[in-house]
């Protein structure tokens, strides 16, 4: 009887996994937003199990992108998670009261997205938030971004802000010379970088000194195979507010870092748009990216950026120059474009993060697994610290002098006599290491070279002259 009941229960669970109930937004959620699994009429003895509804609230171009689809597909593999995407038309036209219900919201700003409506929705429904919405306003202003990075002690290129909108004259002083600018008393020699204060404006200029030909490189969002063009114009822009900063020599690469929580960061390098403006693409037309291993200091930077801006999923740019790593831009919500490993890790971390937060609230029978976003913390005499589980090392000695070898084929009777003298025929080989033995070999070599000089040697010995001279030189060292 117990076996039959167990089989029946397992069959029901399998059926539950294979067929998810598809309802509209109003039917798919309870009053608290959580979906249900199970058929109450068919299985009266088995209590219904709730699902956490994870909603994606973003513009269609972002929510329907390949990376998002890859991650949502993997999130759906969690037994207690169901995902839903808010249609763009609903986001733009419907009041937030008519938006679908959810328990967890993944929402992020892009061009045209009504961030204020998303905030109103979270105030109304109180879902668990993955990326803080208030901080996304800060990410739209490079001045606030740089101020936050400075406050967190994160390395930045030396910079100054020219704020032409400020009523304070001391914040909008600009003196331009042939090969430099002075911004509010701070001098920047060319090459230097000029960035609009709005993070939505990607028209960044790099100005070159006259010794390098002058002019400027004008960066912009990728258009086809171009990401920048050269201009002969050497004068800075006279309208708008800008950040001026030192140009950092990076050997032609930029490092893009993508976090998923404070303890996970994926990094890639790409060809810098400041080089020649041509985008490197592979056979499939995608921009070529190179894997990057972050240093411990860079991992700490990633953690600080993630926490400071309250963005669980966050992308930012690193410049490696002069033996240091500098953050030059924080992009907010951003995914790796083409990495199955990243998609797997991202979905696992997000899924476990969501269930850890919401499973107890909805009494979902979910066991908390150990994941990358859950580092081993142990109490010590210095407070709580991460525990070192193991050290893996691949070690090869490097304190041996390379062997100096010389090979020579000999057929002269004098060598065979020496071979016989030291019982070479008995063992099939002979090792001559003692000084007296090596002196005998040297004497034979000298004698044969003398015969060659006196033209008394046979033709075969004469052919070995080069080898004999080499043997003589080695033994005389």
From TrEMBL:
SUPFAM superfamilies: Glutathione synthetase ATP-binding domain-like, Phosphoglycerate mutase-like. Residues 455-477 are annotated as: Disordered. Keywords: ATP-binding, Cytoplasm, Kinase, Nucleotide-binding, Transferase. It is an enzyme of class 2 (transferase). GO terms for molecular function: 5-diphosphoinositol pentakisphosphate 1-kinase activity; ATP binding; inositol hexakisphosphate kinase activity; phosphatase activity. InterPro entries: Acid_Pase_AS, His_Pase_clade-2, His_Pase_VIP1, His_PPase_superfam, VIP1_N. Residues 52-141 form the VIP1 N-terminal domain. It comes from Cherax quadricarinatus (Australian red claw crayfish). This is Inositol hexakisphosphate and diphosphoinositol-pentakisphosphate kinase.
């Amino acid at each position: 009887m117990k076996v039959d009941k167990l089989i029946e229960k397992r069959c029901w669970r399998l059926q539950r996994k294979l067929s998810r109930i598809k309802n509209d937004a109003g039917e798919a959620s309870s009053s608290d937003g959580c979906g249900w699994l199970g058929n109450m009429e068919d299985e009266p003895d088995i209590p219904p199990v709730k699902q956490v509804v994870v909603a994606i609230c973003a513009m269609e171009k972002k929510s329907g992108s390949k990376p998002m689809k890859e991650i949502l597909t993997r999130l759906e593999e969690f037994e207690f998670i169901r995902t839903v995407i808010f249609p763009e038309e609903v986001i733009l036209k419907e009041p937030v009261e008519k938006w679908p219900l959810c328990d967890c919201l993944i929402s992020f700003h892009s061009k045209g997205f009504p961030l204020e409506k998303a905030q109103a929705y979270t105030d109304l429904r109180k879902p668990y938030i993955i990326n803080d919405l208030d901080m996304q306003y800060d990410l739209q202003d490079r001045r606030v971004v740089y101020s936050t990075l400075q406050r967190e002690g994160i390395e930045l290129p030396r910079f100054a802000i020219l704020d032409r909108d400020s009523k304070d004259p001391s914040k909008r002083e600009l003196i331009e010379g042939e090969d430099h600018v002075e911004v509010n008393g701070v001098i920047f020699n060319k090459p230097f970088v000029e960035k609009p204060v709005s993070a939505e404006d990607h028209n960044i200029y790099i100005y070159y000194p006259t010794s390098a030909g002058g002019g400027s490189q004008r960066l912009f969002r990728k258009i086809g195979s171009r990401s920048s063009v050269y201009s002969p114009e050497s004068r800075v822009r006279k309208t708008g507010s800008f950040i001026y900063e030192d140009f950092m020599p990076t050997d032609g690469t930029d490092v893009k870092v993508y976090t998923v929580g404070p303890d996970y960061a994926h990094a890639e390098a790409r060809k810098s748009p400041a080089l020649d403006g041509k985008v490197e693409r592979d056979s499939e037309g995608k921009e070529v990216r190179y894997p990057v291993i972050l240093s411990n200091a860079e991992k700490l930077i990633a953690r600080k950026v993630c926490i400071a801006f309250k963005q669980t999923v966050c992308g930012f740019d690193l410049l490696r120059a002069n033996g240091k790593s500098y953050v030059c831009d924080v992009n907010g919500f951003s995914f790796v474009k083409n990495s199955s490993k990243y998609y797997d890790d991202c979905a696992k971390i997000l899924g476990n993060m969501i269930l850890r937060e919401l499973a107890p609230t909805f009494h979902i029978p979910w066991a908390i697994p150990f994941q990358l976003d859950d580092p081993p913390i142990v109490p010590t005499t210095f407070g709580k610290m991460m525990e070192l589980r193991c050290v893996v090392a691949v070690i090869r000695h490097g304190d041996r002098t390379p062997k100096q070898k010389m090979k020579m084929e000999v057929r002269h009777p004098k060598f065979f006599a020496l071979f016989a003298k030291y019982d070479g025929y008995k063992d099939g080989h002979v090792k001559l290491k003692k000084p007296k033995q090596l002196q005998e070999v040297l004497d034979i070599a000298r004698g044969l070279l003398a015969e060659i000089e006196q033209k008394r040697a046979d033709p075969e010995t004469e052919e070995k002259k080069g080898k004999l001279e080499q043997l003589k030189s080695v033994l005389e060292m």
